[in-house]
Amino acid sequence: xxxxxxxxxxxxxxxxxxxxxxxxxxxxxxxxxxxxxxxxxxxxxxxxxxxxxxxxxxxxxxxxxxxxxxxxxxxxxxxxxxxxxxx
Length: 87
Ligand SMILES: [Zn+2]
Fold this sequence. Notes:
It is a single chain. Strands 1-2 form a two-stranded antiparallel ribbon. The protein is 63% helix and 9% strand. It has helices spanning 6-20, 29-41, 55-59, 62-83; strands spanning 2-5, 47-50. The chain is mainly α. The protein binds zinc ion. Zinc ion binds at residues 26, 28, 30-31, 85, 87.
């Protein structure tokens, strides 16, 4: 059994799509992780108990519930990191 912050998965998934559209932005690992940590710090965690492989079918519906908050948190994080990259 594992405890997992499902919000983290959702943020990484959206972050990939959103950063790929920012063509003037650095896509390095450091910048990606900075965007992810800033976004996650402004979002509530959502812990789920998982067996390997089970998590996605169980909590898929949560994505639509959180997606607006996630997109706005990532947008703010992208603005911050793009202005002052730490790589
Ligand atoms: Zn970078």
